[in-house]
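User: Okay, second chain of the day. Same drill as before: sequence in, structure tokens out.
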Amino acid sequence: MPARTPKTAPLLIRVYDGTRRLMAARTRLLVRVIDGFQKERLARSTTKAVLRVELPYADNLADRYTVIVSAKGYLQAGF
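Assistant: Same drill. Structure tokens below.
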């Protein structure tokens, strides 16, 4: 049986400041994405407030992703 090609799915991440506006373009962000098995799938430094990434899709608990964004002077939260 031939190996199956891994499935992927897009994730669109939008980062807002405390006033519900997209983060300013000059803000340095650290974006981390962790899957449901606690494996880090992405760790990227960027100045973009909107980021589109392709992540593995397994149709199981691994698809329960956590996104954590850090920036100097801001508190972080993961959902």
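The two ends are 38 Å apart (CA to CA).

User: Thanks, on to the next one.
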